[in-house]
Amino acid sequence: MRSRFAMLIGAAALVLSAGSAAAYEAYTPTPAPLRVSPSVKSALITTILPNTPFNVMGCRRWCQVQYGGGVGYVDASYVVPGDPDDLGPGPQGLLAEPLETYGTVLGADRYGYATPGY
C-alpha cells in the first residue's frame, strides 16, 4: 500500500513539474478580457493591459494564464508569446516614430516652393 502511495505521489510530482516547465511568458498588444472559465459567457475577472507580461500555463482556443496574482482564461487570439520589451527595432518602432522630412514637400522644387503641374 505504501509503495503504491509513493508511486502515486511520484507520478503526481512528475506531472506537475512537466506542467510548470511548459509555461511561457506572453503579452497582449491590446486590452484583453481575463475570464473565470474558457467562455465568453463566463464572468470577467479583469482586463489584461496591453504589453503587460503574464505566464501562459496552457493554450488551445483559450489560454490559461497567471496574471496579477490570479489565474484565469484569455482568448488565444489575444496572446503573443514572448516579452514585449524584446520586440526591438522593427515595424512597430518605425511606425511609432514620427518621420522627419526636413521641410521637403512632395511636388516642391529644391527650395521648398510648390511647382506647377505636380
From TrEMBL:
Membrane spanning residue stretches: none
InterPro entries named among the record's database cross-references: SH3-like_bac-type (IPR003646)
Position of the signal peptide: 1-23
Top-rank lineage group of the source organism: Bacteria
Keywords: Signal
Residue span, SH3b domain: 33-79
Coiled-coil regions listed: none
UniProt protein name: SH3 domain-containing protein
Organism: Methylocystis borbori
